[in-house]
Design brief:
Elements lengths: L1 E2 L1 H10 L7 E4 L10 H11 L5 H15 L7 H9 L5 H16 L5 H12 L3 E9 H11 L3 E5 L1 E4 L2 E6 L7 H14 L7 E4 L5 H5 L3 E4 L4 H10 L3 E2 L9 H28 L2 H20 L1 E6 L11 E4 L5 H10 L3 E6 L9 H7 L2 E3 L4 H16 L3 E4 L17 H9 L3 E6 L2 H4 L10 E7 L13 H17 L7
Helix pairs in contact: 1-6, 2-5, 3-4, 5-7, 11-12, 12-13, 15-16
Amino acid sequence: MNVTAADVMEAVRSGPGGPRIGAFFDLDGTLVRGYTVAALYQDRIRRCQAGPAELARVLLAAVDGMARDGDPEAIGRAGLATLRGMRADEVAAIGQRVFAERIAGAIRPEARDLVRAHLRRGHTVAVASSATRPQIEPLARDLGIPHIICTELEQSDGVYTGRGTTDLVCGERKAAAVRAFARGARINLRQSFGYANGAEDLAFLTSVGRPYPLNPHPALTEAAAERDWPVLTLREPKSPTLWAGLGTLGALTGVNVALGVGMAYGLLSGDRRRGMNLGIELAVDTGLALAGVKLNVTGAEHIDRARPAVFVANHQSTLDVLVLGALLRHDFTAVAKREARFDPRMLVIGTILNPAWIDRANLANAKHTLEQAVDRLRGGTSILVLPEGTRMPTPRLGRFKKGAFHLAMQAGVPIVPIVLRNTGELAWRRSLLVHPGTVDVAVLDPIPTTGWTVDELDKRIAELRDRFADTLANWPVSGG
């Protein structure tokens, strides 16, 4: 029997809640497509940190592990050996960096939804994997998973020895580790959920009352059929395609041509503002159409309710610029970091929008730039600010900086929050391609800033960030 993510989430919602119900997720091939260890090795190769002998050992272990009758633990042992002599804090930093640069883009979007469904029901959620803690922790933090059952690494004075404190947590040992964790946490395994993709996890899945082979390998698919287990198929992260490449190329060309038309109109007519608005409208409509991207917007009426305003949005993708431009359309500019001024992709956009370029390294210049932005707000031009300051690797929100809030307070204009749900799925932050699809957008009620004080600014920022987080977790019904 095949089931969807929606089917399983409904079973989670309608079933018993509370911490005595467990939800155990395998890592590689389950929460993420592919193998996290491959991302770590790609990083080592790119940085010339892996020699020929090490690469040969790892490749042989990988081939052995993928063979039907091979040794799935071979790659794990090879991975442990590469850590010999490395400091624990260094490995943790590498794990965080590789997660942001590579692994984050491989998380299955519906896996995130599934984890969230279990957390909402108060279940005890854990990653159960033969991987090591430095591999798992960045992803677990991002998904909000509080517990990790894994292969723990042996240390001596903060340096890894290249061995585990136990054997690899794989196969029967993984099942035993899950059972031991369940006993300690007083979890009812008969009512608990398990998710995994490989035949090596058969014992683990048999340990729980609600096993779900997830995007399973053929051997596990056969075992699931024999046991009448429901097979869960989640959609994969976007992969490069010819259509996406052509669409992205067409969108880039269309955007620049349209902006050029707007610039030319402004010069010929002597009305720079009208030319800017024309260029923006043509560019965003053309770019989104050629990329095959549509918008599904809730709360669109709030966009023009309180202009001029400071519009703030979460940021995960280069696609955000087109989406936000399509919403705002006219009489706006942006605040951007000074380094982006020299990005070739920003040359034409920068000329049209004339953003307020902030030099974070020079406090006096930054203050002067913000004063100019306040003057533009008072003159009727809205300003777009991305308060996280950089593209985030996943939908998880970053820290909100204060600049947008100071601007709104000083100019006496409202803040209008714009929540983008899935631009990162269509164009991940480290991808050069935009994939066709629909972007979900929620525009929230304008927030007046009258009466705000500097002393309460941290509280106001935290409240707004919480509103973003709540909207992402409990998406509103779309207005179409």
